[in-house]
Amino acid sequence: QVDQIEDYPFFHYDPKLMVKKNPKHKKDVFVKPGPNNPVGIVWIDLNVQHLGMHGTPEPSKIGHRASNGCIRLTNWDAFRLASMVEPGTEVRFVDPIKRPAPKKTATQKTK
Predict the structure, then answer these.
(1) 65-91 burial, b if ≥16 CB within 10 A, otherwise e?
(2) What is the DSSP letter of 53?
(3) 16-74: per-residue pLDDT in tens?
């Protein structure tokens, strides 16, 4: 579920929360808002701690694991999505490979 939407968010890098820990990263870092911010121009906060949908300044990295599970979108797609949802909007992730077959309605004929 969407908890909140933040335009031009600060990015808080906390090395303790990263799956791929870099021993050189010992302290928290805050990155100012802007299009080159790691979470892009919008953050859609979900009701799972540290999980959200956000833009990225590097569209070539979309579809590749690089974080702890956030959903990266192009900045323009994240901006558009943020305009279509509001706090309380239900979010469901569906595995397209394991998606159940659609239920048949009374008007559909069975073979």
Answers:
(1) eebeebbbbebebbeebbeeeeeeeee
(2) E
(3) 666 666 666 667 777 889 878 888 899 999 998 778 899 888 888 887 766 667 888 99
> Are residues 78 and 53 in contact, defined by beta-carbon separation less than 8 angstroms?
yes
C-alpha distances (whole Å) from 62 to each of 4, 10, 14, 33, 75 are 22, 20, 21, 20, 11
Residue showing tokens 């469901």: 92
* Neighbouring C-alpha atoms within 13 Å toward the C-beta of 29: 9
pTM of the model: 0.72
Could you tell me which residues come within 8 angstroms of residue 101 by beta carbon, excluding any fewer than 6 positions away? none
Which phi and psi (to 5°) does residue 42 adopt? -150, 145
- Helices H, strands E: what count in the chain? 1, 6
